[in-house]
Structures are given as structure tokens and as C-alpha cells.
Amino acid sequence: MAGAFQSCKNLTEVELSNKVTTIGEKAFRRCVNLTSVRLPNSVTRIESEAFSSCDNLVSINIPEGLTTIEKETFYGCDNLASIDIPFSVVTIGDSAFEFCVSLTEISIPENVKNIDAEAFKHCRALKNVDLPNGLKTLGVMAFAYNTSLDSILIPEQITHIEKYTFLGCTTLDFVSIPSSVTSIGTSAFGDTNSLKTVLVTRNIPATMQDSAFGMSLPEGAEIFVPTSSVEAYKKANYWMNYAANITGFENGYEFDQESGKLTIKTELGAVLWKENGNNIKPEDIQHLVILDTVQTIPEEAFDGCTNLKTAEIANSVTTIDSHAFSGCTSLTAINLPVNLETIGWGAFSDCNNSALSEIIIPANVKTIGNYVFLGCTNVKTFVVKGETPAKLGGRAFDVDRTDFTILVPTGKLATYQTAWSVYADQIKAVEEKVAFLNLSANGASGTATTTELTLSFDKDIQALTESDITLIGAAKGTLEKGNKTGEYKLSISGITVKNGDTVTVKVDKAKEGYLIEPGSRNASVSVKQPAPGPTPSPNPNNGGGNVKTGVTDTQTGAACAAVFLGIAGLAALGFKRRFNK
Q: Number of structural domains, the chain?
């Protein structure tokens, strides 16, 4: 029913039953306090303006089975930051997401064939857009005034770029136009003030309707065309307005057909190798080498190279753009360069070779986009080197799997589990091996009681405290870091063993993320002995012979008894001798 809940200001959440199949025209239009919508899979049609001007909508799912996102469906949803478009969608209608000013990321699936006029106009926060390879039409002003968009690769199926398609994209700095494009409309890239590089691979200049790039290009901007076609472009209608910016390009790549080895020398080479006229098919590539003259691997550069087994990437590379290696199902290892900072959307999605069991993410990585490792079903371990968690996009790892582990640096477990909370159960700390070298005690045997134990390891153990230690044979006090690497001082008291006997310190389970060997050590401790009593003085009453001490100790009493009996025996013996004379 059209407008069923239109302008219901008190409506904040919607969850529909699985009996609903259609959301009517303007059904929830201007529900300004609506924040969350949960649609059942039974919904196969959402009519125009169904959720338009829902200013506070932040979460909505589009069910699989929907084929068209009708015009103005989400027009003016100011707070909608991300949305997943299902693979069933073929057409995104006029102004479907226009003025979604908070939309920062969107994944357009491969089945989408048509993006209609103004579909994403004024999406000012949208930075990355990966246009699907099967896309056939881009409507007028489809991405106009997207003031955060930084690059765009026009797919091979597009033959005409409509007027004003990317008008006013003031941060756009890279555009790739394939050889399939035969015409470009008026100001298709007008007012793109940051444009630096335009790559045009067609040998015959496309027809240009008025000035496609505005009255002039920014200073220093370059239009790269095939070297053999430079003069043709400089003389072509309207292209001649940019003659000073037009320059030829070399291939920037080498391919050995026999071995299947592709060597990329320049960033342009990473785009040019797959042009239709080069007779190199993605499935021909078996080995890839990217030289240190490359800093960015462009979007979809090696997408669908299903026979690619190895990729040697120079450490000069700092960015791997969206879907760069998506669907490389034969990759046996992914060795990411140490200087890598950004991994774009779906860069390694569906790399599901059975031999690919571990991926190491270097310490410098700051951004991991949506779906980067989605579908890497055989990877069981991701080793993350960074001390600080990278910004993580939605479903960067596969949330539907639990059979993998994310290993993070020792001491950073809680930090990562908080930052990447959706994967908290999969995150573990790397076990760093530590040698427990020695345990020693202060004090002096019998004269000075031990008050401190010194624990010596071959390296420092981050945040080690007394609560991480088990002490047997005494009561533990506080633990302080010593002056030397791996040295710790533990105060103790209440020793329960004898002087010269040992106490035991156990640290085998001291800190998660450390493997400490051996797990325990012993040390002899000292216990001060009582001072001996004073020497007895002679008793004047018995001539200095016997001293009355009042000793009650049984052993001492027994000794005294033996002395007494001995004296008595001697006296009796003397008496007997006198009697027998």
C-alpha cells in the first residue's frame, strides 16, 4: 500500500514478517526517526521512494532476490553510511541513493548492468566505487558532485559515458577509460579540479561532445593515450583543447607467453596488459612480478587470473586497490610488501586455493577494506604484525566462518579484540618464546633472611606483574622491573622452608602470548638462625660443679639425667671399694 507509514515520526525500528513480498511506494517516506529496518527474504520488490528522506536511517538490509532498486528508494537518507547490494540486483534506478551524504562505502555486485541517472549524485562521503565488469550503462550525473571520490575505472562493457556523469568530483585524481568507449558526453568529467591522470587506451579518439574535462585540465594533469595515436588525439575535435596535456604511454609491462610470467613495470602497465588488443587473457597469467617502480596496484588489475600461482610484489607498493587479486583461485601464497598501507575492497576475495593456508599482514597496514579476504575459505591463519589495529571494513574476514585464527602481537590481544570486536573469538596473541635464564635470591645463609628474588629472562615480558607468578615456599610481594633487559625483582616474606632449601617460581602460564621455557626455576633461600644462648655461670653453692639451669628440653633433660646417673654410679663404686677393704 502506497504511503502506508509515511511521515510516522515516532517510528524508530521496523521488522517485517516473512509474509511480506512488496514494500509499497513511499511506504516509509519521511519517517525521520526511523533508524533500523530488517526486511525478510520474502521481499522481492521495493517500490520507488519507499525509504526516501528517512534522515536517521543507519541500518537496512536489501534481501537477495530483489532485481531493481527503484528510483529515489533511499533518496536523502542522510545517515546511511553503508549498504550491501545483493547479487540479484540488475538495475539501480534514478536517484536511488542521491543525497546519501554519509554513504562512505558501497559494493556494487557484478550482476548490475545499469546505473541510472543521478543514482549516487551528491554522495559526498563516497570515496571508493568499484564499477562491475558487466556494467553496460551509466546514467547522466550518476556520480556527480561526489566530492570524496578519488579514482574511477570505467568497465569494458561501457560504450558511452553520459554527460555530467562525474561532474564536480573535486577530489577525483585518476580516470581509466577503456578502448570500448566510443563517445564521451559534455562535461562528463567537468570541474574535477584534482585530476592528475587520465588513461585512454583506445587507438582511435572517442567522439567528444563539447569539453568532457571542462574548459581546461588542472596544471600538471596528463592524458595518456597510445603512443602511436598521440597526434590523432591532439587534432581530434575537442580533444585538441587538451593537446598540451596529451602524451603517449609505453606498455609498462612484459609478458612471456611460454612461462606465463607477467612483469609489471609501471602502474599504467598494471592496467594496460589486459586491454583487448593485447591478446593476453587473465587465465594466461601464471606468475606475476611487480617491480619497485610501482607504488599502487590499480583496481581489478589481476582480477580473475584464475591460473596465477605466484605473485612477487616489490616493497615499494603501498596500496593494493579494490579487487586487485579477486578470484585468483590458484594463488598458493600471498606475500604482502612490508611498506603496504592500504588494502582495498575485496582485494583478495575468493582466493580459495587449498595450499593458501596463511596470510601475513605487515605492520604498516593502516586500512583493510570491506570483503578483503571474504571467500578465502582455506586460509586458517592471519598473522597481523601491526602494534595498532588497522581500520577494518565490513566483512574484511569471513564472519560466517569460525575455523580461522587472527594472530596479533604479544600484549595487544585486548586492544585488537576491542577494535575488531566482531572477530574477538578468532583473535589470539602470538606466542613469543622467552627463555627463563636464572632465579637467584639475596640474603646470607643462616645470618640474613632472603627478602628478594631476581628473575632473569632473555627479553622483557610486557606488563608482567606479581599476579602472573606462582611462588612455592614463601609469600610473594610486589614485582618490579630490574635495570637489565629481562630482569625482574620479586619481594618475598614468610619463608616456610629451612635455611638452604629451595623455593620455586612458576611462570609457564604467566602471560598469554608468551611461551616461557623452562616454566619454573628453583633458588636456595636463606633463613636467619636464632643466636645461641649465654654461657652459664658457675653455681657457688656446689663449688662450681653442677649448675642449676631449669632446662625443660627433653633431650637436655636426658643428658642431665645421664650425667647424674654417671656420678651416682661412681659414688656407689667408691663406697663399695671402701666397704670391701
A: 3
